[in-house]
Amino acid sequence: MNDPEQNYLSAGWTVRSWLLTTDHKRIGILYLLSILVFFAIAAAAAAMMRLELLTPQGDLVLSETYNKLFTMHGVLMVWFFLIPSIPTVLGNFIIPLMIGARDVAFPKLNLLSWYLFIIGGCFALHAIVLGGVDTGWTFYTPYSTAYSNSHVLEMAAGIFIAGFGSILTGLNFIITIQKMRAPGLTWFRLPLFIWSMYSTSIILVLATPVLAITLLLMSIERIWGVGIFNPKLGGDPILFQHLFWFYSHPAVYIMILPGLGVVSEIIPCFSRKKIFGYKFVAFSSVAIAVLGFLVWGHHMFVSSQSIYAGMAFSILSFLVAIPSAIKVFNWTATLYRGSISFNAPMLYALSFIGLFVIGGLTGLFLATLAVDVHLHGTYFVVAHFHYIMVGGMVTAFMGGLHFWWPKITGRLYPEKLAQLAAIILFIGFNLTFFPQFILGYLGMPRRVHEYAPEFQLYNVLSTAGASILAIGYLLPLIYFLWSLFYGKKSSANPWRATGLEWKTSSPPPKHNFAETPVVTEDAYEYPPLNEIGEHPDA
Amino acid sequence: MLERHSIVAEQFEDAEQQSAAAHLGMWTFIATEVLFFGGLFLAYTVYRHFYFDAFAAGSKHTDAVYGTINSVILLTSSFTMALAVQFAKIGRAKLIVRFLLLTVFLGAMFLAVKGFEYHEDIVKHLVPGPNFDPSLPLQSQIFFWFYWIMTGLHAVHILIGLGVLSAMAFLARREKFSAQYHSPVEITGLYWHFVDIVWLFLYPLLYLVQRHA
After folding, report:
1. Nearest CA to CA, how far is A358 from chain B (Å)?
2. What's the pTM?
3. Does the complex come out with an ipTM higher than 0.85?
4. pLDDT tens by residue, A398-453
5. Residues β-bridged to residue A445
6. What is the CA radius of gyration of chain B?
7. For residues B56 and A509, what is the distance between their CA atoms, to the nearest angstrom?
8. Where are the domains of chain B?
9. Cis peptide before A507 (omega within 30 of 0)
């Protein structure tokens, strides 16, 4: 088993050995390849939108097409890229390795999750090929049930099916983390990535079914023309929004908690220091997951929700800032007097911190009732959640992918090029989305393809930024592929990191460990400072 | 030891770990299901609060006899299921099969009764839409909308349960379970009891709204 030539990749070369695999590592790779396809399609939709917005006139696409573009972008990015991204790729690959297990608790269920994801994805793509959906990713009633002439049902079916894949992934992770930890690996010795994935899984399991039932009710109403969201019978369309956001706000935390976990792994490694305040970082993940269920009403401040409910939701939304800030402060304290090296994963982690802070603080603006009345439905909201989801989650995903790439493939990526890509991504991202804060503040509404001429300058800046962003994404794609064939072979632990995943060979053997490891120390036990205040191994 | 090894899947250390994982897995799945039905129960509560009279009028048009018979059938099936699990714990293969099949029979009875009831509901114009019984208030359609969707989703769960129970009976017949290894039967039991409990909520909410008045 210790033969370096025998690993999970060389265990079988046939297509069948991939499509019927129950190896969590191979399933992680299957997910990686499939979410990249969805990312590319959704990114193409975004590129079309940015091109349209170069000029104030609606001259590239019709408003109807534009509606379909932003719906496609939203649906694919949220359900078929962001939600599965870190959990199903890095989570699947790394969780069992990190806890010293041979696989997840239910490997066949894990493969079923992927198939559900793919079937759901095919429904979504088919809906797009047939002509798309124009409701926005939120499917608000009564437009989605009574008026839209697009392929709402098929898209909803795709999300419904993929949702069950998410639920099973969450379930698998919860049981794996609860029951499969190596001897000696107590809860407070777990890497923080595990804490964040556990919190994410709780949300996946408890929130996704509510989306499932909501989409089911919406679809039944659309098919039979009667239902509970229909005002004709005395039904209430706002109830749909409550149910939808009861899922979709926690889903926002599905889309950021895994990123927080990845950053908590990278920062101690490239500062050569134990993480500052382990328990605070760990419990802040749990706190974000719990609070995430109590803030959905902040999406409905201007939808006839009672003002008292608005106040309660506003205060609860402010509370989310506390665990988020705890994480940022603890990372900063970890960096303090660390021996920092600026490898690509670290650059991504550092830009994550900056962008997450901006995204988080602008979230507080939006959680403030009076300010939200002004900013609701403008580009300010678009900029805010892109700072969290792209600036946060996608940056963390890139960081994690670089960090664990040697483990996954057994090859090193070209460091200089990767550092360059990280910087390009940071610049491109800010140039794309920072002008949108200004646009939103000035009152440019989202989801329209024409705008007043005075907004053009910021829109041109944003589109220019998007093209830089595209280079920042294409570059890693190219050098990752290159490294598969020509990259230097990686040792078991190229970063000299702690954690069980680095104790096995790169790439790991089929069953991860020759012998079940025994854990005797805390996470992130990087060597302490020596007498003259230097890090001995730096 | 050799026999013991064959029933433990390769990712687990031992049978205890495997059994604990299976149990926690089913409980987690049930948590998901609670939230799935939870959305419906929430919406039901909201509209029952808005339109109580229409809900009461609608509820009087449901057939409480069918509903009550079905409650008795389903509770009995939970009893036979519990017996199957008990016999699984002491490794009595024949009795496991017998009580699992009895549970399947009772579940099928439930669906048959439900089928007769659905037929009568359709004849009595209790399907929301243009053919809805005009003597009922408008919002009773919302009540019946819940009636159809909640009982329909519950029936789907029964149907899935029947499939799983039959598979377990088949495996038990081929002597796959023993006093050491029987967690599949146990967690099937958990699922079946959950489906039963959902009905215990549906029964009063749909059939018994102000029945006495």
Report:
1. 34
2. 0.95
3. yes
4. 999 999 999 999 999 999 999 999 999 999 999 999 999 999 999 999 999 999 99
5. A378
6. 20
7. 64
8. 36-207
9. yes
Q: Largest Cα–Cα distance of chain B, in whole Å?
A: 71
CB contact under 8 Å between B21 and A239, yes or no, is no
Residue entry with tokens 């029933």: B7
Q: Which residue, among A206, A202, A211, has the nearest Cα to A161 in the 3D structure?
A: A211
Residue A31: alpha-carbon gap to chain centroid: 13
Out of B38, B47, B129, closest to residue A226 by CB: B129
Tokens linked to A79: 């359900």
Give me the DSSP letters along chain B. -HHHHHTS-TT-SSHHHHHHHHHHHHHHHHHHHHHHHHHHHHHHHHHHHHTHHHHHHHHHTS-HHHHHHHHHHHHHHHHHHHHHHHHHHTT-HHHHHHHHHHHHHHHHHHHHHHHHHHHHHHHTT-SSSTTS-TTS-TTHHHHHHHHHHHHHHHHHHHHHHHHHHHHHHHHHHTT---SS--HHHHHHHHHHHHHHHHHHHHHHHHH-TTTT-
Q: Which of B28, B127, B150, B160 to mutate to test the interface with A (most CBs of A within 10 A)?
A: B28
Which residues in chain A touch residue B10, judged by CB atoms under 8 angstroms apart? 102-103, 511
Which residues 50-109 of B have a C-beta within 8 angstroms of A? 50-51
Strand, coil or helix: A414: coil
Q: Where are the domains of chain A?
A: 24-502
C-beta separation of A169 from A87 below 8 A = yes
The answer to whether the CB of A214 falls within 8 A of the CB of B117 is no
Q: How confident is the model at residue B67 (pLDDT cuts 50, 70, 90)?
A: very high
Q: Enter the DSSP assignment of A8.
A: T
* Residue A23 reports pLDDT greater than 90: yes
What is the C-alpha end-to-end distance of chain A, expressed in Å? 32
Could you tell me the two tokens for B140? 């009773």
d(CA B31, nearest CA chain A) in Å: 7
Read off the tokens for A402: 């670089």
A171 and B29: CB-CB below 8 Å? yes
Is B142–A228 a contact, with Cβ atoms under 8 angstroms apart? yes
Strand partners, A489: A411
Q: What is the pLDDT of residues B113-140, one digit of tens each?
A: 999 999 999 999 999 988 999 999 999 9
CATH code, B36-207: 1.20.120.80
What is the SS3 assignment for B39-54?
Answer: HHHHHHHHHHHHCHHH
Residues in A closer than 8 angstroms to B9, CB to CB, are 107
Chain A residue numbers with beta carbons less than 8 Å from the beta carbon of B35 are: 206-207, 209-210
C-alpha dist (Å) from residue A253 to A88, A140, A249, B55, B128:
15, 21, 7, 38, 38
Q: What is the DSSP string of A179-227?
A: H-PPTT--GGGS-HHHHHHHHHHHHHHHHHHHHHHHHHHHHHHHHHS--
* CB B12 within 8 Å of CB B18: yes
* Closest to B185 measured CA to CA, from B103, B72, B70, B76: B103
Nearest CA in chain A to B20: A179
Q: Give residue B49's identity as a one-letter amino acid code.
A: H
d(CA A483, CA A477): 10
Cβ pair A206:B31 closer than 8 A: yes
A263 to chain B, closest Cα gap in Å:
28
Q: How far is A359 from chain B (nearest CA, A)?
A: 30
Please give the CATH architecture assigned to the domain spanning A24-502: Up-down Bundle (1.20)
Closest CA to B84 of B169, B175, B16: B169
Interface of A with B (CB under 8 A): 101-107, 167, 171, 174-175, 178-180, 205-210, 212-214, 217, 220, 224-228, 233-236, 239, 243, 246, 511, 516
